[in-house]
Automatic annotation (TrEMBL):
Species this protein is from: Ravibacter arvi
Name of the protein described by the UniProt record: Gfo/Idh/MocA family oxidoreductase
Domain spans labelled Gfo/Idh/MocA-like oxidoreductase N-terminal: 39-169
Pfam family, one: GFO_IDH_MocA
InterPro entries linked: Gfo/Idh/MocA-like_OxRdtase_N, Gfo/Idh/MocA_oxidoreduct, NAD(P)-bd_dom_sf, TAT_signal, TAT_signal_bac_arc
Gene3D superfamilies linked: NAD(P)-binding Rossmann-like Domain
Length: 346
């Protein structure tokens, strides 16, 4: 009998006596091979997403594509009463988060000491710069939920700081990752129309607050490279925004439209026009697909959406508001970015 067979028989006898089947032997860590520790996530802010993300990432039965990361601590700074959730809502979020095994801590420093990476989930974009900076200074990669800031200048301030400190940063609406968007060949897209609810918040650029959920999938299929934006319609019921992309294949232009809904039946959707087909956007089913991308970002330190495209998305929305104020005239995106960056240096 060979030595390996003798050892197998010995293990079977010993472990059966301990109530462990032989299959359990091969489920146990091998001697000398340490198991990779989860990346520890710290969260800033009690919100819908921080509760939902805690349930997804801390589920002991979670699938492989969201394994390797776990939310360990949350710090909830004082909110702004004009946009904050109710006490009852906050209490519900807190219970969900505690039930997921997340420790709620009283200070940012304590949260940073417990984590490797950070998610900014504060509902309001205005305090995000002050919440992001401690993480950047600590060299911890950051996911910033929407809206990144209250205006384009604030978005640039955050992304420029991250670039200067060489710390990876990522942001995205979950609508970018609706199932069938990834199957569309961007090189064959001729145009697209998208829509979403578009509630307004007076402290933020118009579409930043909620209309971004239509803008993000528009860019996901059209790609970066929008040059001009116009907003021919704005009312209490809706927004209509048109973006223009140069088409290098034909020398002409492609158009993409966003409809922001504030009355009647509201939802998320879109139509994508390609060389070979007309595709209806799949139904939005939740945050899990976004969380998969966040996990990948924290593992690789590579943002799934380049900073340049994210800045262009926010510039699109800023330019739309400027067009709205100017009676629907076209606004140049590059000039909008330059103007916002200049304001940060004055």
């Amino acid at each position: 009998m060979t030595r390996s067979i003798k050892r197998r028989k010995f293990l079977k006898t010993a472990l059966q006596g301990a109530g462990i089947g032989l299959a359990g032997v091969y489920a146990l860590p091998l001697p000398g091979k340490a198991q990779a520790a989860d990346i520890r996530i710290g969260v800033v802010g009690l919100a819908v997403h921080s509760a939902a993300f805690s349930q997804i990432l801390n589920d002991p039965q979670k699938a492989a594509d969201v394994q390797g990361c776990k939310i360990v601590a949350l710090y909830h700074p004082p909110g702004n009463p004009d946009v904050d959730f109710t006490k009852e809502q906050l209490a519900g979020f807190e219970k969900t988060i505690r039930d997921a095994g997340v420790k709620i801590v009283p200070t940012m420093n304590e949260m940073l000491a417990l984590c490797d990476v950070v998610m900014i989930e504060t509902n309001d974009g205005r305090p995000h710069f002050n919440e992001v900076m401690p993480a950047l200074k600590a060299g911890k990669p950051v996911f910033v939920d929407k809206p990144v800031a209250e205006n384009l200048a604030g978005v640039l301030k955050i992304f420029d700081a991250a670039a200067k400190m060489k710390v990876p940063i990522f942001t995205s609406s979950a609508l970018r990752y609706v199932d069938n968007i990834a199957t569309i060949d961007k090189s064959k897209v001729l145009g697209a129309d998208t829509y979403s609810p578009a509630a307004l918040e007076k402290s933020h650029t118009d579409l930043f607050w909620y209309g971004i959920h239509a803008v993000e999938p528009l860019f996901a299929v059209m790609g970066a490279g929008c040059t001009e934006v116009m907003q021919p319609r704005h009312s209490e019921n809706e927004d209509l925004v048109i973006g223009f992309w140069d088409d290098r294949r034909t020398g002409g232009r492609r158009t993409g439209t966003v409809r922001g809904l504030r009355s009647g039946k509201r939802g998320f959707g879109g139509t994508f026009f390609t060389e070979n087909s007309i595709v209806q956007m799949d139904t939005f089913t939740g945050y899990r697909s976004l969380v998969v991308q966040v996990v990948s970002f924290f593992k690789t330190k590579i943002p799934p959406v380049p900073a340049e495209e994210t800045i262009e998305i926010y510039a699109f929305m800023e330019a739309a508001m400027e067009s709205r104020k100017n009676g629907g005239k076209k606004v140049n995106i590059a000039e909008t970015i330059a103007k916002a960056r200049k304001s940060n240096h004055q």
